[in-house]
Amino acid sequence: MTDARDTAAKTPLRTAGGGPPDEAARSAAGRRSSPDVPAAAPAVRDGDGDASRSDEAAEPIPLLEPREGIPPVVADEAGLAAVIEAFAAGTGPVAVDAERASGYRYGQRAYLVQLRREGAGTALVDPVGCPDLSSLGTALDGAEWILHAATQDLPCLREIGMVPGELFDTELAGRLAGFPRVGLGAMVESVLGYVLEKGHSAVDWSTRPLPEPWLRYAALDVELLVDLRNALEKELDRQGKLEWARQEFAAIAAAPPPPPRKDPWRRTSGMHKVRRRRQMAVVRELWTARDRIAQRRDVSPGKVLSDAAIVEAALALPQDVQALTALPGFGARMGRRQLEQWQAAVDRARVLPESKLPQPGQPVAGPPPPRAWADKDPVAAARLSAARTAVTALAEALNLPQENLVTPDTVRRICWEPPQDPTPESVASALAGYGARPWQIEQVTPELVKALRGANG
Fold first, then answer.
1. Could you tell me where the beta strands, DSSP code E, fall in 255-299?
2. Backbone angles phi, psi at 191, to 5 degrees
3. Angstrom distance (rounded) from CA 113 to CA 120
4. Are 97 and 148 in contact (CB under 8 A)?
């Protein structure tokens, strides 16, 4: 098969939204000290990175097989040692991906890890047979890791001992470069001109042995990540956003694991229907019982009892198993013993004293919901409206999503409790305190200062 990198080198880079900005857009960007961003007109790039108008895009090429074929799955220490040796001797960045069994198994553990590096080829490693991959992670110290949507895979990689020191996130790079669709398949097609087969993204990756079509799909997921990374780096550099991306990647790599979510039962789908505290207690008891069973069985909680069934039981407060059986989600397929354990959870909630019932709503850290601002603090509401308008306009001028320019939560916080004197220095300091990166501070500080001062009269 044609070497994908050679073909990619000959394939013009098709950017999201096209070529160089027109004079009006360039002028507006210059007024904001912004980078060169692509306008809406379609364009392609030649090998030197110059944009040229094109009325029709080249037909994408289906990518059907990994260039060296499907590698064997490594599931023992001897095979892992060979992979470590090969990847330690490889050169350049390393493409990394992980497959989970979301919707099938409890938790978010990795069931397959895919890697690719120049000089080492592609490897498929089974974390069930090799649960500790810290030695592989150590062998990759000093190498840049390329991941697509890194925050999704980093938690499960961390669990098996693989933690990057430096990374490049191709999904985030696509967002910063202004691509409207940033899924891996869409990015590979629009940037490199290849079509990836994505039919196995939601399968049960805990299945053993893994079918050959799944392994082919898994290997292809890292086949072009290095090529994609290189093309996106050039595009970000062309737009003047490469340093922005580097700051974002460094922040992801340095971020600690998130703390456990408080009261996770409150995220039960349909929870908005549950109004009374006694009913909320039923949701909590059923959710907790379900989670314990799911963890013991190593299955997805939804396969034990659906969220919809939990909410139905909470609203109905059934008096006995017979009443419970009549509710949606507790039908004939459920055995008597299962029904009794769910009814026991309902009964526990029914007899709780008032002092033990959950409070309606969680304590909110930070500002109240924006819909309440007009009544609580009309001046703050005016600040928020002005700031949102300014940030939206700036994000459009820079051709990137608003949430990547500055998080909505940061904007809310700084508008609810602004610096006493909203100078560029005080606003920049507040943004830094909320975790904004230097490039974000540089871009949004002037707009926020104007918004805060204008709303204050």
1. none
2. -95, -45
3. 15
4. yes
Residue 393's Cα: distance from chain center in Å?
A: 25
User: What does the alpha-carbon distance between residue 61 and residue 282 come to, in Å, rounded to a whole number?
Assistant: 54
Query: Which residue carries 């909470």 as its tokens?
Result: 314
Task: Please name the residue that has the structure tokens 């509401």.
Answer: 381
Joined together, the tokens standing for residue 204 give 């049960």
Beta strands 43-45 and 51-53: pairing type?
antiparallel
Q: Are 8 and 193 in contact (CB under 8 A)?
A: yes
Rounded Cα gap, residues 280 and 136, in angstroms: 46
DSSP string over 54-85: -SSPPPPEEE-S-TT-PPPEE-SHHHHHHHHH
Alpha carbon distances (Å) from 81 to 45, 63, 452: 42, 30, 58
* Residue 17 neighbours by CB under 8 Å, 6+ apart: 38, 39, 40, 178, 179, 180, 399
* Contact (Cβ atoms closer than 8 angstroms) between residue 391 and residue 444: yes
Rounded CA-CA distance 422/453 in Å is 7
Under 8 Å CB-to-CB from 360, ≥6 apart: which residues? 275, 277, 280
Report how far apart the first and last C-alpha atoms of the chain are (Å, whole number).
67
Strands, sheet with 110-118, edge to edge from the N-terminal-most edge strand: 73-74, 121-125, 110-118, 91-100, 144-147, 166-169
Angle, helices 438-455 vs 408-416, to 10°: value is 40
- Report the 10 Å Cβ neighbour count for 202: 11
Nearest to 344 by CA among 282, 295, 291, 392: 282
Per-residue pLDDT of the chain (457 residues), as tens digits, is 334 334 344 444 433 333 323 333 333 333 333 444 333 322 333 334 333 333 345 789 999 999 999 999 999 999 999 999 999 999 999 999 999 999 999 999 999 999 999 999 999 999 999 999 999 999 999 999 999 999 999 999 999 999 999 999 999 999 999 999 999 999 999 999 999 977 787 899 999 999 999 999 999 999 999 999 999 999 999 999 999 999 999 999 999 998 998 999 999 999 999 999 999 999 999 999 999 999 999 999 999 999 999 999 999 999 999 999 999 999 878 899 999 999 999 999 999 999 999 998 766 678 999 999 999 999 999 999 999 999 999 999 999 999 999 999 999 999 999 999 999 999 999 999 999 999 999 999 999 999 999 866 5
Interhelix angle for 242-254 vs 438-455, to 10°? 100
